[in-house]
Amino acid sequence: MRVAIGQDSHRFDFSDKNKKLMLAGVYFENHPPLEGNSDADVVLHSITNAVSGITCVNILGPISDELCLKKGIKDSSVYLKESLKYLNGMKIIHVSISIECLTPKITPKIPEMRSSISRLLDIPKDSIGITATTGEGLTQFGQGKGIQVFSCVTAK
Global pTM? Predict the structure, then answer.
């Protein structure tokens, strides 16, 4: 078995009126998007980084830049799927995700987010834990300037 932690964070882009806020592949209406070359799905980026911790193959960097900047692929689920190619027979069996932000409210969308991650990782929804906090406003994420996510992935 292997366990790895992934982290990612992005600032909100208050000026982009065309981009959408995506978290775990789920659209959050009436909220500014996150800055980034891709869709900036900070949840999927965090999970991708955790998978990279298991496989020792970094996806976010040269590989995602090739996909995003050269091939125009901005959907972060593609980066996550790319990371899964390097598991070499291992299977993800559990994911724990902690989201820090002031806005949007995460709790109402947790069931939809779990379903999305379940489909992407091909694991049961009850193997995906998602928690959210404002961190009592101690960081810029809890103050409404962006979103930070930590993910812990277990693979067997």
Answer: 0.97
